[in-house]
Amino acid sequence: MTELRVLARVSIMRLRRAPRPWISVVGLASIAVASALADKAQGATSTANHVMRGSFAFFVLPLVAYALVGGSLGGMGLRRAIRGIVALGAARARSALATALVAVVSSAALCGILAAGICVLAHGATDPPLAVDGPASFGIGVFGGAAYAAYFLAGAAIGKGSMRGVFLAFDWVAGSSSSTLAWIFPRGHVTSLLGGPLCAGLSTRQSSVILFLLLIVYAFAAIRLARRA
């Protein structure tokens, strides 16, 4: 664990010093807040449900995870991001694991906080009780942010890392569809858990399990791919 903490410092410093991811986070959060305020101004009474499965699930959650993964990698692919650490003698697999942990944990934490905060801000008279809806939104944000981070890490581990953007496009197109292929992308499961349509006919309980499995599978794939020289 001590070695992982040391190896993780490189990604942590990249993320802390890079302004672009944080500018993206603030901008995306502002979109969700503006959407909530606009709905309330129009007299909507179920604002939280609309915003959480709308602008939050569609834009904020995936793009925040995308920005944080990019920041933790310094805008590079995963293989290149760990190259300097590996050159100093660190094991390639451990370096990839440490980098992945920084991206996944930071995305999970921030997406959970944003989900809970936006839910509280947008809460309307006919939304579920805030004591239930707030913690539920936080949990979905945590697992959704972690799954998206692992998904984008897998894309960043392919070739020079440009597949991260391709993975984002795939998630938007195929993940939003009603086909059975949608289950391999985080989008449909997150939207389903936030009260949207079911993903590929799966129940919300099944979607929560699959979202967790996607986190494990994509993170494992990213680390395995990064082990290649």
How many angstroms does the end-to-end distance come to?
24 Å
Strand count, sense and barrel status of the largest sheet are: none
Number of helices: 10
- In the predicted model, the low-confidence regions spanning at least 5 consecutive residues are none
Q: What global shape is seen?
A: globular
Total DSSP E strands? 0
Structural class: mainly alpha
Q: What is the average per-residue confidence, as pLDDT, rounded to a whole number?
A: 90
What is the H/E order?
Answer: HHHHHHHHHH
Radius of gyration: 18 Å
Portion in strands: under 5%
- Helix content bin: over 70%
Verbal overview:
This protein has 229 residues and is an all-alpha fold. The chain has ten helices and no strands. Helix 1 packs across helix 6 (92-122) and helix 2 runs antiparallel to helix 3 (47-72). The longest helix is centred in the middle third of the chain and has 31 residues, at 92-122. The chain is globular and about 60 Å long. The two termini are 24 Å apart. The mean pLDDT is 90.
Task: Compose a concise summary of this entry.
The protein has 229 residues and is mainly alpha-helical. Helices cover 76% and strands 0% of the residues.
